[in-house]
Batch of 4 targets.
Target 1
Amino acid sequence: MKKSYQAFEELIAIYTTLPTNEVDVDTLERICEERREILRHLDRHSKKMKDVAQVLDTYGSKINWMVNPKQDSVISNHVAHHFIKMSYCKSETTRTFFCTNEGKLFSYFLSRVIHKAKDHSERRDILNELSSRLRQILGETCEARAYEIFDDAIQIEERGLLENKENLKYLKMIASSSFIMRCPFELASSILHTYDIVLEKGYAYFPFNFNDEFLLDLFVQPLKQILMSQLLTLHHKVDDIFKNHLELGFLRNLDVKYTGPAYLDEKNISNITADNVHVFARKHFPLCMRELFDKLLEDSHLKHFGRLQFGLFLKGTGLTIDESLRFWKGIFSRRLNESDFDKKYAYNIRHSYGEEGKKADYYPWTCTKILNNDPRSHDEHHGCPFKVYGGDNLKKALGKYPLPVDDIEDIMKKRDGKHYQLACSTMFQVLHPNGPDFTVEHPNKYFNESYKYDTRKIHANSGRKGPSSSAPRGSQESFTPRDKIHH
């Protein structure tokens, strides 16, 4: 069997058949996490095939199955793809994410197979075989997606596919020295202004270039349809699978598992202190922390989970233990004297910094932890506002920021669709035009990126070239517990 055909067979097997290989649980968890990270990077950084190649060169270079062509790596690729589907079958959002980015991965692998083929005839055979295989899997529902590549117009004439003689004559002229693709017209409508096309009986015929990213992508559409069908089927079975196979429990929340920085022992790049927390809250806190801070100012108190969520966030910004004690003591001073504060709260603050008890250093909460924390009662304020607030309260909270009405509506739509982190990310993008493009997965990531954005802006306006260790303008304002943030 030719080398390119062998690679083609392996590629198709990964996406269309179940693996039969044995893999230990530790290896399975590792290769599934690797594939998840590749899909995340593709989602964030790739819009064109050259972007996909760059992402895979950058992030896939340390992953064995991405760089090692040996059989065991092919098996790892196959197994990881199959099992990770259990993490992404849960909702329309996760299914769309998976199919879109697996489609990018498939396109990349397919382009490599096509590139390695010895000539255009072999490339044509590979793509025609691909179209036939996918059509067989999907059955009659795929008949409208029956792509086929021909050597020339004579083959089309011999099969009697074009009855109009003028169309056949024109096709011979525009494709005299190239292969010809036949596909349903509705799939070719977007390229009418780019290619010379012959239309007849609902099909489009046009010259085919094996290096054209868009044309190769046509072969990915049926693959995405297959993947979506698999995910929808799996969605109804996955709970029973997890119940009967406890060792696969790590897959249940793999799609939302946070893998970024822990924000532990952070350097105080912002010079945040007890005196200027209010300035940073106004400019750089994500909505969840801004709301906690406002409630803290309003009531001079937060219940346990609110204190924990907000206190660990402040720790992640670089606020030292001494400044943290001074901050909380100042806030609580309207309700408690110093002795009562020391008895009731000082120990817990020192404990969160690893200075008491078993001296464990506690991490600031990730978005996943905040979203999945215990439901709160009416007088608690922890959690994610995008999830726990009603529509009117959320709009009121968003109104504290300089957000245009249209953007607030866009954020609300994402929230209504339960895309809470996407709503927060959209809010960041609107407040930081031309800033970094990322998905908010951690409140401290939001804070750091917002602060760095503001610092760059200040230096750009002042004509300086490099970052400074100085805090943003106004950060040294004095603060007392009675101060309020001006909205």
Target 2
Amino acid sequence: MRLFSSLGLASLPTIVSGFSASSPTSYETITGSKSSPLEGISGKKSLVVLLPQLGEFDSSEYCEHLVATSDALAKNDIVLRVIGIGDADAASEFCRFTHLSPDVLSVEPDGALHQELDLYAGPGFAVPEFVSDDVLRFLLDTLPGGAPGENSRLRPVGTSWLNYLAMCAGIGAKGTLQEIIRGYFGDYSAPERFRDDDVVEAGFITIGPGVGPVKMGPLSYNQWFADEKGYQRPVELATVRLKNMVEVLTKWDQYVSNPLAIAQRGATYLFDEEGNELYSYKTPGVLTYSNTMSRPLSFLSPYIGDDAALNPLGLPDTGKGELVKGRGVLKPAGKAMGLLGFLFKIENKLQAKLFGADDADFAAARREIRDEISSKKVVIYTYGLSPFSTEATAVLDEIGADYARIELGLEWFLLGKEQSVKRAELLALTGQSSLPHVFIDGKHVGGVFTGAPDGSSPGLAGLKESGELKAMLLV
């Protein structure tokens, strides 16, 4: 496929180019290809990105990656050209928000180039005839931008919104639902996406700095995954998208100049020095601007190297697709179990008493525990059927720790007298009512997800995330 013949720029009715962010009115409407966005790239590789509306969430998300890799593209003699649907006002806001250079951005008001390239524009629905104009106008008034003033545009705009909203719901939009889920549940195969100093404000909700702190009016809390590093954490990408959504929705009229093109999707093309296609991808839905969304620019690896292509934002990246021990769904469950600690403390002591334990039994258990925790650098007390105990030993195994495992029994309700007394003494010694108990150099560091009650340690998983666990084992 040849570059100029395939993109058909000479046949486009209108291309807006030469936009300058410093003087937004100094753009020029060009007929034909006399001043096309692809001028000046002859003899060089070129990356041509067709965005949907500049006010589309995909556009700012994609361009954050493109901006971050611009130096690597230039270093490898690859010219970047970005063409989006919009006008000069939209381009000015977009360049300000994304930091995309105005020199590489061209805007096209109607999506004619996208249509000529037969890019996707939704499942092809139309507003049913039985929906009256009054009802349609009422519905459109509930959406950003409202209903158009001209009756002649009412149904075309309604049709565009219908197709876009259908894609948002995953209808006729390959990969969209998976991408929405990935944004909320995280991705172990992707690098971090939200910087430690990033803050998002949406009404009464404030998220940040970083992925941990959340404030909702008077309520404040810390996300359970806040201490985890090196991969795309749960809701992290959704938070980035919330930031982009707030930007667009609060400036809708500046960003979206043509509601008739709301459903229009984009594409990415990479060409060699002679204009031959090296790569192409046409967006099939919403939030699917790459066929490798975990690392959207991976197709550039052969041309700019893995570091720039696979992690252009340069954020921590240690996941590599592996479920690291001490993470996952057990973590919030483990932290939630801490809320029941007061009940377990009552039950803990009562269970030992019901077996007829006396002071001598407790004293013997106390001596045994002291001997055990001093017998090896790392000692862990577990239940045989507890998933938390299994996860704790898996964390230790993952980093190659040498430890002694002491199993009290299968579960707390299956313990006999001796084990129940020992469990009660572990509570008295540490203040923690649940297992596992982890000791390093005779000091209690908590469980797997719960920290030491005195606040001296975040627990085994927290120590591992911070790198302290390895340091403690080396001493």
Target 3
Amino acid sequence: MAIADAVFSGGGVTVVTLTCCCAVVVLVVTLLKAMADMWRTVRCNRKMAADFPVPPGGHWLLGHLVLVGPEGGEMMRRNVEWAKDYKYAHVIQAGPVLAHCSVYHPDYVKTVLARSDKKDDFIYGFLRPWLGDGLLTTKGAKWFRNRRLLTPAFHFEILKPYVRLFSESTNVM
């Protein structure tokens, strides 16, 4: 008890000082984690830019956002042009940290959709409130479990009786 009296008396370390030190430590740890996440994202984007073509015209700081224009239609028009120029995929830079890979060749899309690695919470976070935790929005062990449960339902022998119905419905449309 004598140690506590010495520490918390007027001449020792106060509660306010300890609180401030803890706040500084939490702030520093949070900033270090954010910097590590940002650096991981930058490294991933650099690898993606090395693997896929990057259209010209990007700014060093703003990336391809300089091409958006006041209405935003210019970027869409350019994206369609790039899809014609780059047959499989291309990377759009959205600033120094963010990048977006547009994939449109069926073989590439199949490869991307078949992957079960970590899904981007930024994008899938918007979908989760509407779609719930389904096959599209889940990840990890839960994704494997759901995939294993759904796969037999799409076996050819199970879908065979519905082929005529699908064909008739397609003809009606």
Target 4
Amino acid sequence: MTSVAECIECEAGTFCPVGSAEAIECAPGTFGNQAGASMCERCRAGTYQDTSGATSCKACRGGHYCAEGASHPLPCPAGTRNDESVAVMTSVAECI
């Protein structure tokens, strides 16, 4: 590139690191809710994102937990179950 006019603005769901020639989709477990981002944000604990190029994260499903940056809800390990007193499980430690 030889001028700012040649720069592209990345769409929501993508990011463009410095010097990028093209936009890169946000990976599963991350999202980009604004255009022009230089990086994607990790899904917060209690949410997940299982697809690339997402603009938001999904709420974790009942009986599962979702740690920060989760790309899928994870079930409680065998011999444990979800703690019904916890509205949104964010770690395996919340399985009882």
